[in-house]
Write a structure and sequence with these properties.
The chain has 7 helices and 8 strands; from the N terminus they run αβββαβαβαβαββαα. It has about 210 residues and is of the alpha/beta class. Strands 1, 4, 5, 6, 7 and 8 form a 6-stranded parallel β-sheet that branches. Bound molecules: flavin mononucleotide.
């Protein structure tokens, strides 16, 4: 009788251990970790912009570089073949037209998204949406089984529901909650930006 009890307990303990290990593995698979093959793909425009004047490096690019440095990830800058006007007002007009017509501006080069498990996708908020070139990029690739982590810079509108649009556009991907930061903070207060990025990445690991 004692032996049966002992064998039963041993069985329960080992089943518990197997279950705990299995749960841990599932969690490991589902969260972006340092060990995974990570790409930071981003759109970002330098030149004249709202709240920052003329800048040499785009706000989103600053955040993208911080994320890539923290995670040891590769980077891909989504750039259009035809550059946007350097001045702010003409640029917002071009972007407005592109959004109204759901344009898909051609982009320079490409990256093998298929080689990565996790893609951090960065963009500025343009008219409450992503720049149309980000859709061009998305539509060139197969997102099945990928984890996509959106991040954006903005001047007040935040993510504007772009996570949902990414989920629709990246068929078969798991899209995580996004991160939004004011572009002027990225540009003018890099330490504040870095701390916000680190805190967000830390939260993603938990
Ligand atoms: C064409 C255009 C449209 C924009 N539309 C918005 C907007 O709707 N909401 C917002 O908060 N910021 C808007 N902005 C500001 C940008 O989102 C912000 O400056 C961002 O940090 C720019 O990032 P970048 O330097 O990486 O391109 C717009 C800027 C541009 C150039």
């Amino acid at each position: 009788m004692k032996q049966w009890l002992f064998t039963g307990m041993l069985w329960l303990v080992s089943m518990g251990m197997v279950l705990a290990q299995h749960t841990k593995e599932i969690k490991e698979i589902n969260k972006p970790t340092m060990k995974q093959n990570i790409l930071v793909a981003f759109f970002s425009r330098a030149d004249e912009n709202y709240a920052v004047g003329y800048i040499e490096k785009g706000n989103t690019q600053i955040v993208a570089e911080m994320i890539a440095a923290e995670l040891g990830a590769d980077r891909f800058h989504i750039e259009t073949l035809n550059p946007y006007p350097a001045s702010y007002n003409p640029c917002i007009e071009v972007a407005k037209r592109e959004k109204a017509t759901q344009a898909r501006p051609a982009i320079k080069g490409d990256v093998r998204v298929e080689d990565y498990e996790v893609v951090y996708l960065g963009y500025p908020n343009w008219w409450g949406d992503m720049p149309m070139a980000v859709y061009t990029f998305i539509e060139k690739h197969d997102w099945q089984g990928k984890t996509v982590v959106p991040f954006c810079t903005h001047e007040g509108s935040g993510l504007s529901g772009t996570e949902r649009r990414i989920q629709e556009a990246c068929s078969g991907a798991r899209v995580l909650e996004g991160f939004a930061l004011r572009g002027s903070v990225a540009q003018q207060k890099p330490e504040e930006a870095r701390m916000a990025v680190q805190a967000w990445l830390q939260k993603l690991q938990n």
